[in-house]
Amino acid sequence: MKKKLLEFLISHSKNNGFIFPSSEIYGGINAIFDYGQYGVELKNNIKEYWWKSMVQINDNIVGMDSSILMHPNVWKASKHASKFNELLIDNKTSKKRYRPDLLIMNHVKKYFKKNPDERNKIVSRLLKFLKKKDLLGIKKIIDELNICDPLTKTKDWTNIRYFNMMFEIKNFKNLFLRPETAQGSFCNFQNVRITNRFKIPFGIAQIGKSFRNEITARQFLFRLREFEQMELQFFIYPKKEEEKLWYEYWKNYRLKWHFELNLGKEKYKLFNHDSLAHYASIGMDIEFDFPFGFKELEGIHSRRDFDIKQHELFSKKKLGISEVNGKTIIPYVIETSLGLDRIFLAILFSSLKKEILKNGKTRVVLKLPSFLSPIKAAILPLVNKDGIPDIAKNIFNNMKIHYPMIYDNKGTIGKLYRRQDAIGTPLCFTVDYLTKNTNTVTVRYRDNMNQQRIHIKEISKLIEKETGLKNILNRISNN
Ligand code: ATP
User: pTM for this structure?
Assistant: First the structure.
């Protein structure tokens, strides 16, 4: 059922200008997508919501935009060069690559549904081997369970080995596409602190592209090789009590941000990590109920002083902060990291509805959070004659500098409404004969299709009330 929903979502996104497969005319490229005319607007609105609620309303947080390419030593210091690895196994017949841990997990999910004891035994064996980095042990599980290649059903596996997930740039030795934006914030931590005369606690926020050579890159926008992250690095006093306090603070703040989207609280789950990334001391995922089950949407970690200490060591520059008592401290860091493409997918998936109307017809409607809708309102002439389109065009021209709007006269009014429903436009204003004498229009609401007559002068106020970000930012900042 959910698989069908994902297929429906992919085709709806393509047919309505949200997401196109990259380089489609050449057959596409695995796990890379382009954002179309409405996709880019929705994505920009999500960015704006994140930026304003992280940077604009927090006076101890500033933003920056660091470069994608960084000095090779950055990745040595951060240990991405040596430790940012995934396990990999090849099938010699299909020439396909797989993550062995996922092969095992998918196998037990499929074949041990009715035998949870046995399933748990296999999973805990796998976790033990993963922890001990016992690659032969993991391979033994694959052999014992007779796991075959999902495509060719053959079992001619290679040995398991590690695979670094950074993309190296050809002809430039040790130059990589960054796998996270965070290192740009760490390398500029002193620049920002000094030029802003910041005292800890303070934060640096970034939105930017990251790249990872994912082995199993699929599931639409969920696991991409080129994606965007919205990350905060929040620098605090290096004490365990402070770490606990700020970790809780950012967990709650981020959850509040998500809940304001109204996608349904039951769609979120928290998952505390036992096995952590090499830089982290505590960590959790905010998981979301995607079309393929609960999966990581956002990560929240304490990176302690790992990164700054490593950069101090490798750059031989002083990156500590001098205190009044003459002591120098290296701050701890709490990180929140949200995948922009993943939250885009979560929003799109939760908003796409197929509704059966009273007259038995079906309507497809994208019930996006209105403040994120690519188009805030459409101005539609009821008929294409008797000066009605001119009045509608005039209203549109007066309003388009204030809001992203659409003027559409290519079809019957029913068709025009359906087109706006499909792209999630919350308000449609219809101009008809009555407009000529009364200066009123019909407003039609996307979600319940209710209609109401209002004066032209009230259009702007209504758009602001229904689609503005102000109230949400107010609620987030007052908590
Ligand atoms: P996963 O376990 O799903 O691979 P991760 O734990 O490696 O994710 P982080 O390194 O914590 O992810 O990255 C922070 C966020 O960046 C993730 O929560 C996710 O939203 C996003 N992200 C990471 N990898 C990808 C990817 N390949 N495609 C899209 N978004 C990603």
Answer: 0.93
